Amino acid sequence: MERMRDWDDLRHFLAVARAGSTLGAARALGVNQTTCARRIAALEAATAMQLFERRQAGYRLTEAGARLLALAERVEQEVRALEGALEAERRMLSGRLRATTNESIANAVLTPFLARFREAYPRIRVEVTITDRALELARGEADVALRAGRQPEAVGVAVRRICHLPWTIYCARDYAMRHGVPTSRAEIGGHAVIGGEGSVAKIAGVRWLEEAAAGVEVVSRSGSLTNMTAAAVAGIGLAALPCMIGDREPALQRCFPPVPGIGGDLWLVVREEARGVPHVRAFLDSLVADLAAVRAMLEGTAPGRD
Amino acid sequence: MERMRDWDDLRHFLAVARAGSTLGAARALGVNQTTCARRIAALEAATAMQLFERRQAGYRLTEAGARLLALAERVEQEVRALEGALEAERRMLSGRLRATTNESIANAVLTPFLARFREAYPRIRVEVTITDRALELARGEADVALRAGRQPEAVGVAVRRICHLPWTIYCARDYAMRHGVPTSRAEIGGHAVIGGEGSVAKIAGVRWLEEAAAGVEVVSRSGSLTNMTAAAVAGIGLAALPCMIGDREPALQRCFPPVPGIGGDLWLVVREEARGVPHVRAFLDSLVADLAAVRAMLEGTAPGRD
DNA sequence: GCTCCATTCTGCATTTCTGCCGAATGAGGT
DNA sequence: ACCTCATTCGGCAGAAATGCAGAATGGAGC
């Protein structure tokens, strides 16, 4: 035989051999069944050997194929070793990186993540700026930002949607015991309501609550979601909050499922120039992997898209 | 980093690391330089690591890249081992195969090849039918044929051109000493000429010689090129022969370089149905590899296409 | 200082690969 | 006996990878 034309065929060979079918292998590899079948066919053609028997029930290794499997596994083992080394290499990356977000997201997402990230990449120094102002990444004020709400618009940056951020109405558990819980928008009328101030007052969820409570006294106003959360925890009244925040407070409970129409999205914004830099990539990759967990948690409890 | 997306990137990585440039690697791999550059870029993007420094003089490994090289070489080693096993596996192929060709090609090409082939694939039984008749492969009279001349036409077969077969005029060395050597078509007039008979008389080269020698006695006629060769060796006169045959006779010498216009081609014909069968493939692959040597020898001495 | 050469990169055309869809085929369960 | 399910295979359209040609760059040799 000539030299192996495409080492990637071995990856497919292993997957098919293990799954026992091109379909199963395709699922495992995240590709189409046809692709697996074709790569096996290509490998067999290149080597002029029959590696599998085609059956209705799937692909079964021939004797020769089975003998080859062991060898292919050794190749795989070395590839895994290389991947491991690559990972180790990567953990030695160093550099400085400036991230920014608002207080709520910092508390719920970024800060917990940073703890893990520092473990994995001790030589990457991350400086976090927590502010309500949206720093201008394009001007070099920061490299990475996490933003909530509508899709951020800016030039010179790459924007990526992470997940949906459902909102709903929360109240303290002891508030619920004392005053009961509204189970629909109509029942909000009789309750004390915590409102927003400044830019916070403009948030869809906060407006929704104030409008639902039309005529009722707003007992507290705050320009910070964190503050509003604290007010709710203190049992002052109902507050509209992102589930990402409200669910993290053991003292709070949802009044009803996430409200359609008041949710936002979580966006990851990266300065275009910083995007390709290895240690920034490492940060982003880790962050995105970490956010997958947040996403899973939220989507599990979220309604459909609103 | 995620899992390695494409193991074949490692092959390119190795090639570039060794060649020191994407261009050199591309040559080694038989692909385009751009492809190498792009696969390295893809690998670096996937791993978010800089593996090479781009310079005008070429690609140079970074420190991290150099550390990875050793690992990649281990992968390669395992792939080579697998290739070896595959080859060994292949040598255990068994089966029967019928080949056919004419006497000249059998002597010059097929028989010498068969000796080597039997060593490599002891369990494949090859039956050779040497005949001037063109057996009908499509009818199952044989699986593989080697043919000389014009492109064979037939249905149900795959035809592949191996190389050009130059012809020229030969005479025995001692004939040359006794009678001199014609150095052009015009000088043939005074020499004794060996002609063909039957289908051999129709071959372009044989006709060319007889026409060049118009009026001169044809001292011998034979229906077999082998016979004509023997006659030439015996010093009877000049003979038109394919260089493939004439050059193999130490007792013969070329009168002049290959004559444009009288050459043919060597064709490999395979019965369509037999093409995919492993042991036939093994035979064909070996034969083609072997013929590359024949080709190199002939093309080295051949004129341009005629 | 000049040319020549090997190299990299970019934009475009083409080939190749991949995914998707539907049909066919058996096996297994009801 | 029939349905359902998992599987393979073929054709087709879109996507991705590849090759090609040209421009730019910088070093080596004359």
CATH architecture assignment of the largest domain in chain A:
3-Layer(aba) Sandwich
Number of helices of chain A: 10
CATH fold description of the largest domain in chain A: D-Maltodextrin-Binding Protein, domain 2
Q: Work out the helicity level of chain A.
A: 40-55%
The whole-number mean of residue pLDDT values of chain A reads: 89
* Strand arrangement across the biggest beta sheet of chain A: 4-3-5-12-6
Principal-axis shape of chain A equals elongated
Question: Main β-sheet of chain A: number of strands, strand sense, barrel status?
Answer: 5 strands, mixed
Query: What is the CATH domain class of the largest domain in chain A?
Result: Alpha Beta
The H/E string of chain A reads HHHEEHEHEEEEHEHEHEHEEH
Class derived from helix and strand content of chain A:
alpha/beta
Oligomer: homodimer
Query: How big is the Rg of chain A?
Result: 26 Å
**Beta-strand level of the residues of chain A, as a percent range?**
15-25%
Overall number of domains of chain A: 3
How far apart lie the N and C ends of chain A?
58 Å
- Quick one: how many beta strands of chain A? 12
Largest interface: A-B, 36 and 36 residues
Please name the fourth-level CATH homologous superfamily of the largest domain in chain A. Answer: Periplasmic binding protein-like II
Which terms would index this structure?
alpha/beta; five-stranded mixed beta sheet; 3 domains; Arc Repressor Mutant, subunit A; 306 residues; 10 helices; D-Maltodextrin-Binding Protein, domain 2; elongated; DNA-binding; homodimer
